[in-house]
Amino acid sequence: MAAPERKLKVAIMGAKGYPYVYGGYDTMIKELGERLVAKGVHVRVYNHRALFKDRPRVVNGIECIYTPAIESKSLTQLTHTFFSMIHACLSDVDVIFVVNSGNGPFGVISRLFGKPTAINVDGLEWLRPKWKGLGSTYFFWASKMATKFYDQVINDSDEMRRVYLELFQKDSKVIAYGANPRESVSLDPIKKWNLNSRDYFLIVGRLVPDNNADLIIEGFLKSNSKRTLVVVGDVPFADDWANRLKNIQDPRLLFTGYVTDPNELAALYSHCYAYFHGHEFGGTNPAMLKALGYGCAILALDTPFNQEMLQKGKHGRYFEKRAESVKKIVEQAELEPERMEGLRLTARSGLTQKYNWDFVTNQYLEVFKSLAKI
Question: Does Transferase appear among the keywords (predicted)?
């Protein structure tokens, strides 16, 4: 009688944990982890202990390990991954999967222990305005170290693969971020803000300089639009730049702060006149995928990443990094309601197979099996 096939054991670390969903990496771990469990994989996720009051060992079939960190704005994430990496290397997991290029140097630990590893390096962290000086230097160095110490580098867009080839002479495997499209979303969840369908423009994202909310707000307020600009998002710490934006007094501006209710967020996307995407650095962006999945007309900053996601204008229109360009695209959008409706009707077709979570999971599983030699 043949011995039962051994379960592949995968450790995942570098985000806040499971089932905590706050950002793109947390969402990816949830979507990927649950699907891997359904395929018979033993999944272990390293959770940031301080974020979890209740600490069950197993949640939805996923093993949760709660590791500590040095709690500070710049050290929390890195020290959490450091402790998690030590724990995983001393365990019987077959493969270690790390997210975030800032964790690049920790690959030297798994290399010393002989544990196969993969890392998803995300975007151009070293160019983000929040990482000035030493932070920027660290992220560039850490991203380079990721290409030296990890067995498989994963990027989520063809443009990021090109960047890593050019800067670090390292090829990577492209596995996109997944999307969950939805149709026929009720308006009811957003009536609390007195919003009506198609009566507002929308921004979704952290209030940080590289998402360019300031530029979009300035350009919008210069326009002759009578609609509202709804800004969803905030920052989890006191910040002068974000506070300056939130203190702008104009009846056409609505700051909702964080919106954690998925039905409210779905309604905000689904009923907007147009969704503004000002994200400047990075590959496949989760907020953009949501906008496509909810059938939004998309107005995006003209970057190589946004050109790739919107198939060079097939599923959206572009503005330049100037307030006048934003003003112009707002006024054009309002003069062309038929064209905006056309973008809404075709948005979901922009979610090609590569953005399907099941397809994404199968690609990751192939990588993990190859690394584990199973």
Answer: yes
